[in-house]
């Protein structure tokens, strides 16, 4: 069973929305889910219509069946101070380093340090237990960086473990990689039925597999409904001007020729869209990863829509368990 769900996707595909809906869908029947943001955009707070998330775990929603959703915006500087206190007991010395700018340097200049801190904090939440020995969170959902950066982001601890052969940094990096490469973790990629995001999804899955990171599911987001059946789509692809004009005239419509052009244009555009989506579904099928579709919400995304997407994901059952 996956306990850490990493959600990535090309920018604009709605990965933050899917991550939030997934957290809601997993927090059912009394379960607890932690939704983690690592990019500092406060997108989760906006979706749940709440105040900006602090660097602490805060309850932000109640899911269907009484489960709780907590959220955390990981701040790299605060995470580094926690790290220094945990392994080196620096305490006030760590805060002095912050005043001197050393913390800012480490998290913005030093290669890979920021990603090590972000992934480490999320994995700590996955491993954390209460006094009774039970996991504090049943699931942790990470709103991760985009597809083009996800493999490097998750694999940075492997590189750090290789550079630091001994000591607390080496041990911490190895502990994080044990979580990220285990069956407890699944990396889900969000896409749309368009050529560029689908290709980026295919490339991202290939990179994840090469790095031996666990690929979960592909979530096709914002799928448009088909307003024409297959026969109508085929008809819209041809020139039916005379036939349509005749039908409109027989229906008693005056000057039907003015309507025929726009009607045919819209039908042809829809037919082209259906064909494009068919091609992209075929590409996703060849990748060999379970693929699930979420509908486009015509009213736009609000809190009610988010709960609606959570219901859609919950109906998929064990696909994300």
From TrEMBL:
It comes from the Bacteria. One of its GO terms (molecular function) is ATP binding. Pfam families: ArsA_ATPase. Transmembrane segments: none annotated. Residues 5-179 form the ArsA/GET3 Anion-transporting ATPase-like domain. This is ArsA family ATPase.
